[in-house]
From TrEMBL:
<dbReference type="InterPro" id="IPR036052">
    <property type="entry name" value="TrpB-like_PALP_sf"/>
</dbReference>
<dbReference type="GO" id="GO:0005737">
    <property type="term" value="C:cytoplasm"/>
</dbReference>
<dbReference type="Pfam" id="PF24857">
    <property type="entry name" value="THR4_C"/>
</dbReference>
<comment type="similarity">
    <text>Belongs to the threonine synthase family.</text>
</comment>
<dbReference type="InterPro" id="IPR000623">
    <property type="entry name" value="Shikimate_kinase/TSH1"/>
</dbReference>
<dbReference type="InterPro" id="IPR027417">
    <property type="entry name" value="P-loop_NTPase"/>
</dbReference>
<keyword id="KW-0663">Pyridoxal phosphate</keyword>
<dbReference type="InterPro" id="IPR004450">
    <property type="entry name" value="Thr_synthase-like"/>
</dbReference>
<protein>
    <submittedName>
        <fullName>Threonine synthase like 1</fullName>
    </submittedName>
</protein>
<feature type="modified residue" description="N6-(pyridoxal phosphate)lysine">
    <location>
        <position position="351"/>
    </location>
</feature>
<dbReference type="Pfam" id="PF01202">
    <property type="entry name" value="SKI"/>
</dbReference>
<dbReference type="Pfam" id="PF14821">
    <property type="entry name" value="Thr_synth_N"/>
</dbReference>
<feature type="domain" description="Threonine synthase N-terminal">
    <location>
        <begin position="247"/>
        <end position="318"/>
    </location>
</feature>
<dbReference type="InterPro" id="IPR037158">
    <property type="entry name" value="Thr_synth_N_sf"/>
</dbReference>
<dbReference type="InterPro" id="IPR031322">
    <property type="entry name" value="Shikimate/glucono_kinase"/>
</dbReference>
<dbReference type="InterPro" id="IPR029144">
    <property type="entry name" value="Thr_synth_N"/>
</dbReference>
Amino acid sequence: MLHFNRCPHLKQIAQKCFPSVHVRTDKHVQLFLSRTFALAEFRKSWHSTHSLVGDKNIILMGPPGAGKTTVGRIIGQKLGCCVIDVDDDILEKTWNMSVSEKLQDVGNEQFLEEEGKAVLNFSASGSVISLTGSNPMHDASMWHLKKNGIIVYLDVPLIDLVSCLKFMKVDRIVGQNAGTSMKDLLTFRRQYYKKWYDTRVFCESGASPEEVADKVLNAVKRYQDVDSETFISTRHNWPEDCEQKVSTKFFSEAVIEGLASDGGLFVPEKEFPKLNCREWKSLVGATYIERAQILLEKCIHPADIPAARLGEMIETAYGENFACSKIAPVRHLSGNQFILELFHGPTGSFKDLSLQLLPHLFAHCIPPSCNYMILVATSGDTGSAVLNGFSRINKNHKQRIAVATFFPENGVSDFQKAQIIGSQKENGWAVGVKSDFDFCQTAIKRIFKDSDFTGFLIMEHGTILSSANSINWGRLLPQVVYHASAYLDLVSQGFISFGSPVDVCIPTGNFGNILAAVYAKMMGIPIRKFICASNQNHVLTDFIKTGHYDLRERKITPTFSPSIDILKASNLERHLHMMANKDGGLMTKLFNQLEEQQHFQIDKMLVEKLQQDFVADWCSERECLAAIHSTYSTSGYILDPHTAVAKVVADRMQDKTCPVIVASTAHYSKFAPAIMQALKIKEINHTSSSQLYLLSSYNALPPPHEALLERMKQQEKMEYQVCAADVDVLKNHVEKLIQNQFI
């Protein structure tokens, strides 16, 4: 327990971390520091005011044939610094024989040990060091090098490595035994390269050594420029005085805080990183995990999450918890329509693609002395996905991170409700609210903006509130990967060549999924049109067509596609902010007007800009069921109601000149009554469990979702709380949950 009256400087720190909290020095409080302070020393330690390198070494790591020696020499010439090749300058001089002779003399295991010892006896500063391909297999020597160096991983596509080694007539490398192919050994070694690197350079096919050297220098510069990648609120007003400091956040802070203190959403201050055509082509043959690692490393600074640690998180997130090894496969439906299957995760919806990763990002970013209560509003799928994701973090993190998910008591399907309630764990609870999703979402935003309440929770209970809805940048960012991956899969399967445009059609409620596709385009994926598909709650369709966002005299209509039964699309603010050249004042005006007057109108120029990329339409309930029926009849494929909404709109809006990728956001098993009605199955009054098993007996595509079937086998009824539609009631409930979990 720390006391402000004993440490007056801590009051200033707390006020800097939590400017909206009124700190009193006459009472005992616990101190919870912002991630900014936790990162400060790390950020300072890597900054050099003298040169790009300073006294640090640039250490080039990668497999044989990656070009480490050649690239190292080019970098040395550019920087005017010493270049050290471990093979030539350390090993051969130490042993007085060639590396190949030493390997033949002592064998694999002894070679690795003697190689490691030679490196341990070596030291340098301000140099470029080219490692051997096997150095990373010796832990002690790598720790020795890492103390005074930035390790750059030259990541070369496997097919290029094998071709290069064949051209160089290299038929054996360290660790290769009889019967082991070169390809298998290179694949095996990747685990060691991934373990040690600080920053990665993706060496796409055809890149020259000079181009790779420039990439290395840019990667090192980015690594050292720890304050270069920041986030601002969509409601941030740019100061007229250029000298005035702009209020920004780092990635880790944006993830922790979820919502900006002014009510806006966090967005990158700079543009999205962009891959060139050759880099994208080199990812065509990559796995989903490999694609995710490359793309997310470019979007998350290693000062926030070290690249190697991020890679581990991604491998954990997209592992055996997904039923399909491709994670988000693309299936040809008919003609030029393709289905992006986003439902192979543990809870059967597209939310798993981000909510299996976000908990690991969040747990890494929070300060070690804080407790966090994550508040989530769900229109159906988010609730179970959040509870499932945060139940998978380790035991220590569970003691400091808890989740409360609020769902409309009568606004989700019976299966979704059972799934949300059944997903409650020791650190996660489901709370039904006697209202609709829009109330749940608005109530949570009001709780976040209530500085008296949030300050009270910090000071009295030592707990900070955060969010895992798509208003949280850490939740939205991973969704970019599957849109990019879908396009690469179409190229891989031979349906298109890279560079050919595609349309995407997405059932849209909160605008997050379709916005992630916009970000994928900004990174270089050639998406032509974004087709926004609405159900009978078609406020977004109307807005895209008119520029008028109008909620007056509008109430949510329950539909067969409850996850898009939404009227207030939170992520639209991010897109409008980008279109309006980051005009935070305009965003404040528009969304305050929406809150107070229930509508706003954007000007003609912004409407035209919006309509350059977006088209939109909506689907009736009758059309939704008809699409499910006709698709099953013609192809044997069962669409869930949300995907059916997108299919109807795609049929109506696409002009047939290029392929369209339809996002399938949930497995049909979650909406069995609607599916049975669409397929005209008479046994419609069965229990959810029997409906699910009946549908699984149809041998349709996609196959039954085993995790959902297992969920229905659990007969135990779990208790949950139900609250009135009152913000104060929700706040009281949040406080009680915090007291029970953390106090």
